[in-house]
Records
---
Amino acid sequence: MQPLATLKHTPFHARHKAAGAKLVDFAGFEMPLRYSGDVREHLAVRRAAGLFDISHMGEFDVRGAGALAFLDRCVTNDVAALEPGQALYSPMTRPDGGIVDDVLIYRLRDRYMMVVNASNIAKDFQWLKESAPADVELTDRSDQTALLAVQGPRAVEVLKGHVPDAALDLGYYRSLEGSLFGVEAVISRTGYTGEDGFELYFNPSQGEKVWDGLMRAGRGADLEPIGLGARDTLRLEMGYMLYGNDIDDSTSPLEAGLGWTVKLRKPAFAGKEALERQKSGGLLRKLVGLEAEGRRVPRHGMIVEQGGRPVGTVTSGSFSPSLEKAIAMAYVETACAGIGTALEATGGATRIPVRVVKRPFYTGGTHR
Amino acid sequence: MEFPEDVRYTSEHEWARLEHGTVTVGITSYATDQLGDVVFVELPAVGKQLEAAKPFGVVEAVKTVSDLYAPIAGTVAEVNPALLENPALVNESPFGEGWMIRIKPNDPGDLKKLMTVEEYSRLIEEQHA
């Protein structure tokens, strides 16, 4: 861990401190872990609305005549199918099928924008740069981009009157470029919580104006600032991937259950042959959801056993505030991946009985 | 961060208070601040022998898990029954209603080996220098 003094700050750092947030090092950024408490913040997003600073995430602009063809070769999902304003979730894969990162790609008015994980900004940019042809212009805009998420069933109430009306009618994974409290922004109906909501990209010089505007506009909708702690429990309840935990360079999108993002009918993309072989040969392991008996929580790194034999590893685990149960995700041998299979998560002297359950764990969300 | 003066402290962020011959044990407000919302506390059975500085239980928070270490050697005389129903008491009142166990100490004099409030406060300050 770096000393806090050398960590990067987002444009909202002073607001987090003023709100009494507990700040931690996350991927080289000093970020709010929690404000009032993990459970309270989690439930605020499920029941009303939450404001997340996720400006640590990276944004690359991709322009030029070759931009579409290039992106389509770098990721597994179908970039060519994007309509103007539409966004796409996709793994970006290595030739061996491992996942470089999981990203969002937006088709904007004059460019594509790729949104990447904070911990992978340098790695991804280097990866793309190495294979970009001359007719593609790549720019790392991460330091010039502020990113806030407003998530929850009351997200529309928060934004109403402060964004173009058309933004409130956007479908899921659709965006538009327009004014946010008078600031030029990409307004996107996306999120990482399972609730209705928006992600807002804009120039950081206007950061505090937007933050303060949102907090003021959100008073009537019980909007609360939300830290990375609740962000993680919200995404885990939905079974969404966290890069570095559930997926990484050594895991494939098929093993992770991201087959719906892998378009093998595309003529070519990095990792296509490896993933075709994996698909026809059968998967050795699969990422599954686990629910624990009792209140001990299977944690990242614990070994999964069946009858004392190791069959896998826990990738993410937490107490689920919505379900009031301990939940986890784990890679297990395919033979142990069937719904209802009884297993044990173990670490040291700890043995936690678990069983395989369907993902998402939480099905009451308002996202569409 | 302010800590009560009527208890002794460990470097693992437990506190211990001698009351009528038994020692009440809990975790400090610094520990609860680090852990976040506590969702489960696993405690030993009454009558169990505890060794000083050895684990006696587990505290599960939403985001993390931590072992609990016995501040002194002795026998478990009582466990806090309220924590089973309401583990959030540990966050709400770490030095009060959120206590965890009472120990009948082998030697009440052992308590003097633990940190004073001044020593513990210094430890916390140093960790945040």
---
Amino acid sequence: MNEPVLGGMAHTAADRPLPLLRAGNTNCGGCGMSIALNMLSRAIAGRKVQMVIPACCGIVTAGPFPYSAYGAPVIAATFASAAAVATGLARVAESNSDPTRILCFAGDGGTYDIGLATISAAAERNEDILFVCYDNEIYGNTGGQRSSATPFGAFTTTTPGGKHAPKKDILAIMAAHRIPYAASVSMAHPEDMMRKFTRALDLQGFRFLHVLSPCPTGWKSEPSEGIELIRWAVESGLYPVLEVIDGHEWTIDVEPTFSDQALRTFLERQGRFTKSHVRSEDVRAAIDRVWLDLRARLGAGTATPRP
Amino acid sequence: MTMQLISANHASAAAATLAARANRKARGFCSGVYPITPQTECIEQLCAVEIEKGSVVRVESEHSAMAVCIGAALSGARTFTASSSNGLAYMAENVFTAGFFRLPVVMMAVNRTLGPPWNIWVDHGDTLMLRDSGWIQLYCEDNQEVHDSILLAFRLAEDERILLPVMVCQDAFVLSHTMMMTDIPDQATVDAFLPELNLPHRVTDKPRVVGGLDFPHQTEMHRKQQIDAMSRVIGLYGEAQNAFERHFGRRPPDPVVPYRMDDAELVIISMGTTASTARLAVDAARERGIRAGALRLRMFRPLPEPALREALAGKRRVAVIDRNSCPGLGGIVWGEVRGLADPGAVVQNYLVGLGGGDIRPEHIERILEDLAARRQAGEPLFMESGE
């Protein structure tokens, strides 16, 4: 496959004639959201879509009126409202037997924090919406403040000494709604990403995708290293890549090696962790707890998460 | 057409249902609803009816109720919701959004005191808080007017020359829970009165952004378009009244409703059901030889400035009754209309019936006495405490 990183410039016949993210957008170099959009564009292929984007970098991406960097119609929703605005679109589409797929594309602030009640309610009603959260673990637009998706130890402008609370487990929260499909997506594993986007687009009902999205500006990392950071996060066990069907059928899609080296490198290559002097030992215990819970959910019965 | 003994809540739901069904051949109807006293019976009723090509979404907050209406309206559907008091405060961000997006959402708002401390009775402070949200605001006096105003609201809101949301306001309990004989039209008549909605800026498959980034000069342009649309409402309102009268055989009230104003020396301005009481007080005063008159402000947004100026021309003493409070100013209605009276006229503010306190004819008679004795306007007066 061709390289989706190139700001939507590289295209094949398999792609949408109009890419979801057009060239000339103003996203930062190395922005994970650009990669997610390009992959999403490929998965959408010929489907008709309407997107709802709340306040987040993704709506700034669109550019100023009357232009749009998006190759699909977009409604800019108020911060907390993406899933509710999308509900209106989805209901009217359904009433009119209109096959248009309704997508929400939101950052972690609009998902984990201010948007959570709205998302929870739309999930509980099982609205026919695909909700994609690109999670850069920070309020990026406003200059890098902590959200409840910010991981333990990360420096942000509102956690100058590093964040004390751990990251919220959004996937477990969404899975607890017993929605048809909830999955975490690794952009270091493009085949995994493509399969999940396609599957989520095809299913009916409320679907939730969590995409850990490198943010060189907020993470104080090298733009060219974003994909590698995600790979280290997956390998170390820090970012579990999994999917949950109907809230109970849990599958690990990428088995980590739980490499301490990967974890150390992940932390060392980001200024947000070096600034607060977080060590891999501080993080490892939390990773272990997450995986113990996960193994229990999987019913594997193993008490030792690490090989 | 049937006559029904129903509350204004049920009269609202009946009007919304008729309007919803009238759009069945176009993009249908969709509503986000969330309960709050004293609006609950309206949305319960809406959840109990079958609407062809219609969907009523039971959401988790007022904020989302309006958001569902925004999404549905942008998808071309007719939209309605209802709320009140703190619900409107919680919804406020999306109330403004519907205004900025120029969406023809119609909302029934039951006027209730903002809390805490909690109080479920009538006060106009909740909807008046939203006066700058780009919504047309109508304040009603009885159940029939509430019902008719909702039908009229869709006609105004969806007019391509207007495209603004409309709030139809009614007094908590005094109307919302009080049953009155109400004339409910048949579906065919409503179908004929309400053309199918064809939103010019409906979201289709064209790649464009609704509500993205604006630079200052673009914001100014968008605000001007909104203000211009609002300015057209007064002129087009008469057209809508005529159409309503043609189809239903009765005429919705004017933006400003005068009562015995011709030779009036003392004028009482009020909104909502207080106007009924004001009329009684005017009659009683007239029997005592006092030349009193009353003005009901039915339309608060846009403010019917020319009609108010005309009605107040030559009047030297004007009492403005505010069932709301605006700390730092007095009452909101007074703040708006005092500049429309003749220069030198005494325009005195009275804060009456705050938090749902009864406004009885004797209150208004006391106001008339106070007004008649005044050489100049003073601080706003509270009628309960007498200060």
